Amino acid sequence: MASLQSLLESSEIISQGAEAKVYKGYLTSPPTDPVLIKYRFPKKYRHPQLSAQLTRTRITSEARALARCVRSGVRVPDVRLVDVDSGIIAMEWINGKSIRFLLGDYEGDSGTHNSSVGETLENYDISEGQLMVMMGVALARMHQADIIHSDLTTSNMMLTSNFGNPELVLIDFGLSFQSGLVEDKAVDLYVLERAFASTHPESESLFAAVLESYAAELGNKVWSPIRKRLEDVRLRGRKRSMVG
């Protein structure tokens, strides 16, 4: 634990939420490639044994989800270190831009940027339409692996360049779980649809392109029950909004 504590102390903290602190650091000395370090710290309001058990479960679940995604052809950060007892998981640092930024929400990424959306996409040699196709394929493959992300937003997707080729990376699987249920996959898609609507106004055509690509990757036999359930989930969502 001493070495892991030293690792955290020598790393740069990026953000802190209710469940974890996120750092940028290095696992080697001298430092080479940076890694993203997620530290699930003990919760004082929980019983120590319960807190430790929840931490082990969530870190193990995240690591397994990332491994299943890799095996299914979904680009996610490579896992570099897992220590469930210390509450630490370290993974590949992704150099790129969040899809939230690329679709026009500059404040959602890293503050003020001077580049226009078109110029930024051109830097990756990709159009909005192509980006939506990549997104649909990635989500379909993730669901084919029975991985439910649970926090699908455009902030949790990044675009990077791999030897000059654009590459979509899904990130932040901290709430993910494994399920083959149509309901869970439909809810996953609905969460992303709501994220599009709230973060990117007038983006109905973009999300429609995501679903078209998703359906094409899955095939109609698999897509049809998910589509029907997604319609049910949307209806339930509208009813909740009307009730308030």
Task: Describe the protein in words.
With 244 residues, this protein is α+β, with helices and mostly antiparallel strands. The protein is 48% helix and 18% strand. Strands 1-2-3-5-4 form a 5-stranded antiparallel β-sheet, sandwiched between helices. A 3-stranded antiparallel β-sheet has the order 6-8-9. The protein has a two-stranded antiparallel ribbon with strand order 7-10. Helix 5 packs across helix 7 and helix 7 packs antiparallel against helix 8. The longest helix has 24 residues. It is globular and about 50 Å long. About 5% of the residues have low confidence.
Task: Summarize the structure in short.
The chain has 244 residues and is of the alpha+beta class.
What's the helix and strand layout?
Elements: H1 2-9, E1 12-16, E2 21-25, E3 35-39, H2 48-71, E4 79-83, E5 88-92, E6 97-98, H3 99-102, H4 117-123, H5 128-144, E7 147-148, E8 157-162, E9 165-170, E10 177-178, H6 182-199, H7 204-218, H8 220-243
Antiparallel strand pairs: 1-2, 2-3, 3-5, 4-5, 6-8, 7-10, 8-9
Helix pairs in contact: 5-7, 6-8, 7-8
Query: Which H/E pattern describes the elements?
Result: HEEEHEEEHHHEEEEHHH
SSE class:
alpha+beta
Percent helix, as a range, is 40-55%
Residues in β-strands, percent: 15-25%
Separate helix tally: 8
Average pLDDT figure:
90
Oligomeric assembly = single chain
How is the main sheet built?
A: 5 strands, antiparallel
Total strands: the figure is: 10
Question: Regions with pLDDT < 50 over 5+ consecutive residues?
Answer: 108-119
Basic shape:
globular
Major sheet strand order: 1-2-3-5-4
Radius of gyration: 19 Å
